[in-house]
Amino acid sequence: MAITAGMVKELREMTGAGMMDCKKALTEADGSMEKAVELLREKGLAASAKKAGRIASEGMVAVYLSDDNKIGAIVEVNSETDFVAKNQVFRDYVAAVAKQASETTAADMDAFFEEKWALDPQFTVKEALSQQVAVIGENLNIRRFEKYEKTQAGKLVSYIHGGGRIGVLIELACENEAEELVELGKNIAMQIAALNPKFITENDVPADFIAKETEILTVQAKNDPKNAKKPDNIIEKMIAGRLKKELKEFCLVEQPYVKDTDMTVKQYIDSVVKVVGAPIEITRYVRFETGEGMEKKDENFAEEVAKAMN
Description:
Layout: H1 5-15, H2 19-28, H3 33-42, H4 45-49, E1 60-65, E2 71-78, H5 82-85, H6 88-103, H7 109-114, H8 125-136, E3 141-149, E4 154-161, E5 166-173, H9 180-195, H10 207-223, H11 232-250, E6 256-257, E7 260-264, H12 265-276, E8 281-289, H13 301-309
Antiparallel strand pairs: 1-2, 2-3, 4-5, 5-8, 6-7
Helix pairs in contact: 1-2, 1-3, 2-3, 9-12, 10-11
């Protein structure tokens, strides 16, 4: 039976599900509206549709490391409330998403959502997410993931802070895969979680970033009345000094080590190098913080109660 735009529109109005989901359900149901509704409900899409517009900016970050330490993945899954983020059903689901991310071949979220859900391959990742929305009763979203696969000797190490509020996955390269690398990785991951550096070393800082920061510092210096009578060469030296100070804050290895501020992160790494007897390099890291950069729901309980009473 040919599926018309009118049929898709009618099913969408009945269920609130997405247009493509409605078309797919009607095709599968051979045009039967009743059967299509049933299919959408089975997949959790009809139940989740009304919740899809709600802001999901809480949630948690989770990390999965393979037993052989060759693969690691980090994911952020959002919920509407912090209460649900602490729910064990939700936490188990996020752990399953992290494992799925460790096995994925997807390059982006669209491809990831279309993959078969490892725990039940009759559904896609997107359909399994919709089912969780129906079970948990809140809008949920898999926001992002990153997968690391080791290509050289070393360790993948993870750190989760605040029950999943911040997560870090870091890769260390070292010929000697000693246990000391795990402790080193945890400590540096804690540093990344706390201070959120932008780069690993000064060599990693792009030229355009330095140019932009220099431009900002120049404007600041020239707008400061204290510098009105200072010659240009003195102002240039001031700007260079401020930039150098900024780069120490932005670059991980130049930061004061949080567990011992008398040394830098680089000096801490060097102390572990002496123990393991081989050079250690931080090759990459990723830091996810739940809800960063997202719109937060403005919760006012008194207003909510007043609205409900009215």
